[in-house]
Design a protein that fits this description.
This protein is an all-alpha fold. The chain has 10 helices and no strands. The protein folds into 2 domains: 3-49, Arc Repressor Mutant, subunit A (Orthogonal Bundle), CATH 1.10.10.60; 58-180, Orthogonal Bundle (Tetracycline Repressor, domain 2), CATH 1.10.357. The model has no long low-confidence stretch (mean pLDDT 91).
Length: 182
């Protein structure tokens, strides 16, 4: 990639983060191009779809997922505390932008989603937490990481849409955790 094209690419991604944080994932791509100081054609050459732009934005997010799962699986304490710690981390990871929880949760397990590979990182991280708790015989039989990710993502989507504060979300996560634990 030429240096000017790389600068445009990076500028578009940075501006998209700002705009999506302010307005949610449905913000106008034309507005992103304008704020980035490029034409709509330049934006669409780099990112032919909204999901392609989201995928580029999520690259640094993948690193944050890895840090969060290391923190969770390294947690010393009761299985319920570990599970709730992961749920809190998980919701924080998918709730950076308005509309994020629904977007990420609906892409999870969808083989046609352009952000699927990034979502798989999150599903795999959930799998690590589930594996650790399964090895400790702390979970009910048959707990599946994808289903857990969708369930916690659903709680996050409700919280996002209803603009609930963390204090209102925690009891829902406790119900989920209690349902998964032996």
């Amino acid at each position: 990639m030429r240096a000017d094209a790389k600068r445009n690419h990076d500028r578009i991604v940075d501006v998209a983060r700002e705009v999506f944080r302010e307005q949610g994932y449905d913000a106008s791509l034309d507005q992103i191009a304008k704020r980035a100081g490029v034409g709509a054609g330049t934006l669409y050459r780099h990112f032919p779809t909204r999901d392609a732009l989201l995928d580029a934005m999520m690259q640094s997010w993948v690193d944050r997922v890895q840090v969060a799962v290391e923190k969770a699986v390294g947690h010393e304490g009761e299985p319920r505390d570990l599970l709730l710690l992961w749920f809190d981390e998980y919701i924080g990871l998918i709730s950076s932008y308005r509309g994020g929880p629904a977007k990420i949760t609906s892409a999870m397990g969808d083989p046609d989603s352009p952000i699927r590979t990034k979502c798989e990182v999150l599903r795999a991280a959930t799998g690590r937490v589930i594996s650790r708790l399964s090895d400790e015989k702390a979970l009910r039989d048959g707990v599946d990481p994808l289903q857990v990710a969708r369930l916690v993502g659903g709680v996050a989507a409700v919280a996002d849409q209803a603009e609930l504060d963390p204090g209102a979300v925690r009891p829902m996560l406790e119900v989920v955790a209690d349902g998964l634990l032996r």
